[in-house]
Design goal:
This protein has helices spanning about 30, 35-45, 95-100, 110-115, 155-165, 175-185, 195-205, 210-225; strands spanning about 1-5, 10, 15, 20-25, 70-75, 80-85, 90-95, 105, 120-125, 130-135, 150. With about 230 residues, it is of the alpha+beta class. The chain folds into two domains: about 1-100, no CATH class; about 105-225, no CATH class. The strands form four sheets. It has a five-stranded antiparallel beta sheet, with helices on one face. The protein is globular and about 50 Å long. It starts with a strand and ends with a helix.
């Protein structure tokens, strides 16, 4: 997949939709422009599936064929994982972990989880796909990931950067207002009964992150021109 680089030129990344992951050579992930990051966010929203994909026991670097090593890192207070090449050829990262790396994901506060319980009893874990009983759990009982949701502030900031940099991608002037509406839908009181049944259905079936991705992708599909 060819994407625009932050400074100039292109970044060519490898995508595996079936395993829901990206391969980045060297420092390609850091070279992505804001518009390219939003395109990958849109791609994730369109190609994510319920549950965690099965991966081989041993992952190998597509450049040098050496075994990849599991690595752990932090984005603010959100841990994320990826598989890195010991020869520094690049790294392999899952869709959900990429969203955490780019600061799109944040864990719910105890108050938000309490409000969420008033509307749904079960949600699927956005990390492993397991069902979480909100009556008895505030994190996934299987992979122990915190209950998380999509943070709409980050794509808004990226849209601001797009306008300031005057990148040659047409952006609808009304998009920030529409994203602000999405932010209100996703981040204000989780007990808001005005939310559409579709949003609550997505949250219960696919998880809060996927519900947010579905909402954002509907707008980005129309507003970010390839």
């Amino acid at each position: 997949m060819a994407l625009e680089a932050r400074l100039r030129g292109q970044v060519i990344i490898d995508v595996c939709a079936a395993c829901q992951a990206f391969w980045f050579d060297h420092f390609e992930s850091l070279q992505l422009s804001p518009g390219s990051t939003l395109k990958l966010m849109k791609f994730i929203g369109e190609h994510s599936s319920q549950g965690k994909p099965s991966l081989p026991d041993a992952l190998r670097c597509p450049r040098c064929a050496t075994a990849l090593h599991l690595a752990h890192n932090m984005q603010r207070n959100m841990p994320f994982t990826y598989w890195r090449c010991a020869n520094e050829d690049g790294h392999f990262i899952g869709f959900f972990e990429f969203l955490k790396e780019k600061n799109f994901i944040h864990p719910l506060s105890s108050e938000q989880i309490k409000e969420l319980r008033q509307n749904v009893q079960f949600v699927n874990c956005s990390n492993c796909g397991a069902s979480i009983n909100l009556e008895s759990n505030s994190a996934c009982p299987y992979c122990h990931a915190p209950i998380s949701m999509l943070d709409m502030k980050q794509p808004q900031r990226m849209l601001d950067q797009l306008r300031q940099a005057a990148e040659p991608k047409p952006i609808d002037p009304a998009l920030p207002m529409k994203l602000a509406s999405a932010k209100l839908e996703l981040e204000t009181s989780l007990a808001d009964h005005d939310r559409s049944p579709e949003w609550w259905s997505d949250a219960a079936s696919y998880g809060l992150v996927q519900a947010g991705l579905n909402a954002v992708t509907r707008w980005l599909s129309e507003k970010l021109v390839d």
